[in-house]
Amino acid sequence: MPSSPFDLKRAVDFNASQLDAGKLTPGHLANLVYYFQVGRRLDDDGCAGSVETIPAIDAYVRSLAGDSTPDPAHPLADFCWPLPRLVTPLKPDGVKPEISNGFGADRDVDPETGVAKRLHGGCDIMYRRAAAGAEKLPDYLTRWYCPQDPEVPIVACGPGKVVIAGQGKAKNGKEVIEIVVDHGVVESVGPLAFEALHCKRLLVSRGATVSTGQPIAIVGNTATDTTHLHFEAWNDKDDDGKPERSERINPALLLMKILRYATYTPSGSTFDPSKLVLA
User: Fold this and answer.
1) Residue 250 pLDDT exceeds 80
2) What is the dihedral of CA 158, 161, 166, 171, to 10 degrees?
3) What is the pLDDT of residue 261?
């Protein structure tokens, strides 16, 4: 069954009624807080009032809901999302890319213990279906899609330099096509580089200087069965000043500050740069 759209007021009112009825208990709340803490490697005492937990929950909620009052003066406001708004016959105004799977989600869960061997180091970006699709595996593909035909471009979010471009090793040991753009030091963010994984092919080479909205790769499914963009935000540099993934931050917290989208209107199966426009 497809899930209902998230409605904050409805959820708050319903959960409050469950608390009043004694069906939702303080014990449930403590366990949910504990699960959240463990998933994000926080002090896992189950107490929401700890120094780290409430800010982390607040950031997580904002990353899901988005910022209803984006600041056009924010340093990231002139960046753009890494996937374009996609114009289709059913959506002539375009479909915006969205986060289909968030930062910190469980990965490689042991079927016997239910414990995740690792956590999602980035977020997945796809397009939401207008209506729930036919039964698919994994289940979330009933709600999300990202086409390989027509090809969809990945664009540079902001001006920067390509520091990694080519084949690497995914967590599952398979070959993956990746690209990393170093955006230098961004005010209020610090060192910032964005990585795109699972590309079908690359459109630029290592060492290239890129501009906001410039196509740099094509969305693909290398090292995975599902066509999508795995998107990471790196917030550290090594001793030589090169970006490294030792400090990864939730990309959603940055994407919610970005106000711009490129728009792509496919004209055939192969990517056509002339049909990509940055507003």
Assistant:
1) yes
2) -60
3) 96
